[in-house]
Amino acid sequence: MFRLLEDDRGRMESTVTIEIDGYPVIARIGETVASALLREGAFWSRTTPVSGARRAPYCMMGVCFDCLMLVEGEGLVRACQTSVRDGLKVQRQTGPRKVGSSC
């Protein structure tokens, strides 16, 4: 498992519900959207604009940008750098990015 962004010692059982492409996903407080996505078994976060090939979180440290996803209220973000919070709505990025796109 990946390192949590927040220290949750004593809160290991604390969970929140996020929504990925309209489906509810239970996530642990302190984990990232990318780790929740991978743990859920939904192994891709976006498609490439030219070929439509699926891409997945890769480096998990914000360098490769393969984990870009649309987060409600924030637009396109790196899922590996975004902490989950209750009620968060996330969509996979498919096709070419639209300027000013948001959920």
TrEMBL record:
It comes from Gluconobacter potus. GO terms for molecular function: iron-sulfur cluster binding; oxidoreductase activity. Keywords: Oxidoreductase. Transmembrane segments: none annotated. It holds the Pfam family Fer2_4. This is (2Fe-2S)-binding protein.
